[in-house]
Amino acid sequence: MNDNKIYNNNIRAAITSVGHYVPNKILSNSDLEKMVDTSDEWIRERTGISERRILENGATSDMAVKAVENVLKNRGIGPEEIDVIIVATVTPDMFFPPTATIVQGKVGAKKAWGFDLSAACSGFVYALVVGSQMIETGRYKKVIVVGADKMSAITDYTDRNLCVLFGDAAAAVLLEPSEDDKLGILDHILYANGSGASVLYMKGGGSLNPPTHETVDKKMHYIYQDGKSVFKVAVVGMADVSEEILKRNNLTGDDIDYFVPHQANLRIIDAAANRMGLDRSKVMINIEKYGNTTAATIPLCLSEWWQANKLKKGDTVVLASFGAGYTWGAILLTWAVDFKSK
Ligand code: UT7
Fold first, then answer.
1. pTM (predicted TM-score)
2. Domain spans of the chain?
3. Is-contact 329 127, C-beta < 8 A?
4. Is 264 touching ligand 1 by the criterion CB < 6 Å?
5. In the CATH hierarchy, which fold is given to the domain comprising 13-177?
6. How far is the CA of 24 from the centre of ligand 1 (A)?
7. Which CATH class is domain 184-334?
8. Distance 164 CA to ligand 1 centre (A)
9. Quick one: which of 288, 290, 261 has its CA closest to 20?
């Protein structure tokens, strides 16, 4: 491993707890068959999704709070110990204040400060890099990184191209200085390419198109995606960056215990896993249950696998994402802690 991946004071950041929340309401493919011209067969074959969760009441912060509480319970610490809260989301409760400060208030993290990070489906990966560097400087000891999105709030349920894809969820991790230098966040690669702004966006509501009756009539407050264009770039982008992080750390697919890809489409996940030479058993996939929950997909996988005791201390893990922007990236880490329910 390259020594230059360790920053000041040789402190390495590690994920020491993880938790998640998904709403109870399930929107199945057969429910969607009654709402738009689609079929269970098309959705499963083209995306790998069978159902997704919908938050009927409340906002992104309500899901984030439950995920954070789960993280704290699993670590056996109280909210007053948190130093910083970063919430990755494209569906903040409001433009301002930051959802992170709403979460801070609701969980009672009295000494924490926080902010939102907007990088769409790569939001969690970007935020994990930012949070881990706060630990690596030696300045902070407990940083919470949340990926949370209420995608149902910006989804047009009359548009079959989009409404089958997305769901609501929140998941979070706790970052702390690692007790063992071999465990924790080892390397990351992040990318952005602004050409993606023309194929995946929500045009209305911001400073470009402030909300008016016209923007609402034109449905500009919903997600727009040119699926085919995004698909082609996402397949290459996620596979390339996953391969790149392995190569520059002198690893192959054989060295990896788990690949944790953003869950946008099972065909994109399979393409990246095949390029890395990985068997499906090493790939965390839960898209069939939740669809694309944007910033929540990756920590939601980590949380489910950890709480099922399948993700274990010492496991070598690659996280990879691709999303609007375009934004994409990968993180190499060694899992630092076994699950012990508190
Ligand atoms: O998470 C952030 C990044 N986003 C992604 O990575 C998503 C990337 N894109 C995709 O995953 C895929 O492009 C989609 C799942 C969004 C769409 O799959 P596709 O295989 O690219 O389908 P398509 O958009 O090319 O549509 C093929 C056909 C079209 O009909 P015609 O024009 O061939 O007659 C669509 O109208 O499928 C039709 N179609 C549907 N049919 C039944 C589109 N949506 C549906 C639907 N049910 N829900």
1. 0.96
2. 13-177, 184-334
3. no
4. yes
5. Peroxisomal Thiolase; Chain A, domain 1 (3.40.47)
6. 27
7. alpha beta
8. 10
9. 290
